[in-house]
């Protein structure tokens, strides 16, 4: 298994410091790729924001965007010293995989805690359905939202949140523990929440309310055009994907099982894939099985080495 060469790892700072403009994505990706490593599309030909967030975590990546090059070098040096668990001067695939796993778990925990403080109104270290509902929607005792503009939309959102909360609340006491609240906020992380993820996806895309997703609804979720212009090639390709790979029973529409097969395509360890990707792309000569470092510590090497280039150049 390949490992990172230090000279390429150093170039991460250039990536962390740079801001790359990305075009608006016309195509929406509904697939849940395990734990989301980044909100960005993984396309190194355009920029490295996906790798940026996968390596640092989403919140830490935002912090790095505000640092000067020297501050980034120093911060990154400290991070790499933490990744090198056995302090042997090398970063292995296993160490990098563990680090990415840690940063993603930290993001979810921080996201849950941010909302936890907001919704745990009585500070009993639990979040009841009433606390969540009242904080989110206000004190509408009849849940009819009378006098509220677009009340039908609010009623639909409330019903959807209630259904998800009840699914996450495994003991049925209408009070969420921290673990249950995490399942509520991040249902894609929990096996018992997968049906909710599928149902919500269908509701988002199903325009005629028949409980299925036909080809036009499938395409309409990704691409919309108000003109009569010819569909782009990627849209034509997606239509063929629908026929060949999405509509498994060939009845012209996707049922819940087919939607699950589409958006929940098995247990793929994307953190492991990203760790391998970073090592492979960085190990330019493909000759080492270990990440070559300088005589000093990994972090000190990062702080003192010059000649920075773009990370995946």
UniProtKB/TrEMBL annotation:
Its main location: endoplasmic reticulum. PROSITE patterns: EF_HAND_1 (PS00018), EF_HAND_2 (PS50222). Residues 1-21 form the signal peptide. It comes from the Eukaryota. Gene3D superfamilies: EF-hand (1.10.238.10). GO terms for cellular component: endoplasmic reticulum. InterPro entries: EF-hand-dom_pair (IPR011992), EF_Hand_1_Ca_BS (IPR018247), EF_hand_dom (IPR002048). Keywords: Calcium, Endoplasmic reticulum, Metal-binding, Repeat, Signal. One of its GO terms (molecular function) is calcium ion binding. It is found in: Endoplasmic reticulum. Residues 71-106, 107-142, 156-191, 193-228 form the EF-hand domain. Belongs to the CREC family. This is Reticulocalbin 3, EF-hand calcium binding domain. It comes from Erpetoichthys calabaricus (Rope fish). The gene is rcn3.
């Amino acid at each position: 298994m390949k490992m990172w060469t230090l000279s390429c790892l150093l170039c991460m700072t250039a990536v962390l410091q740079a801001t790359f403009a990305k075009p608006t994505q016309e195509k929406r990706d509904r697939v849940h790729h395990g734990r989301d490593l980044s909100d960005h599309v993984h396309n190194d030909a355009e920029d490295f924001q996906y790798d940026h967030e996968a390596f640092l975590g989403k919140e830490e990546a935002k912090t790095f965007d505000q640092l000067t090059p020297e501050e980034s070098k120093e911060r990154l040096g400290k991070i790499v010293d933490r990744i090198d668990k056995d302090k042997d001067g090398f970063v292995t695939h296993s160490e990098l995989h563990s680090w990415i796993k840690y940063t993603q778990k930290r993001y979810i925990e921080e996201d849950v805690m941010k909302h936890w403080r907001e919704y745990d109104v009585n500070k009993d270290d639990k979040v009841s359905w009433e606390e969540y509902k009242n904080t989110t929607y206000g004190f509408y005792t009849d849940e009819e939202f009378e006098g509220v503009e677009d009340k039908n939309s609010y009623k639909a959102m409330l019903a959807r949140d209630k259904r998800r909360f009840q699914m996450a609340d495994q003991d049925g006491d209408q009070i969420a523990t921290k673990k249950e609240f995490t399942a509520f906020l991040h249902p894609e992380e929990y096996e018992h929440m997968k049906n909710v993820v599928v149902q919500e996806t269908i509701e988002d895309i199903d325009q005629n309310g028949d409980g299925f997703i036909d080809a036009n609804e499938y395409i309409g979720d990704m691409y919309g055009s108000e003109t009569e212009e010819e569909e782009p090639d990627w849209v034509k390709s997606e239509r063929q994907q629908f026929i060949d790979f999405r509509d498994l029973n060939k009845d012209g529409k996707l049922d819940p099982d087919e939607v699950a097969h589409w958006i929940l395509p098995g247990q793929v360890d994307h953190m492991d894939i990203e760790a391998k990707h970073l090592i492979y792309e960085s190990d330019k000569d493909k000759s080492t099985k270990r990440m070559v470092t300088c005589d000093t510590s990994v972090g000190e090497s990062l702080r003192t080495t010059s000649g920075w280039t773009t990370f995946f150049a």
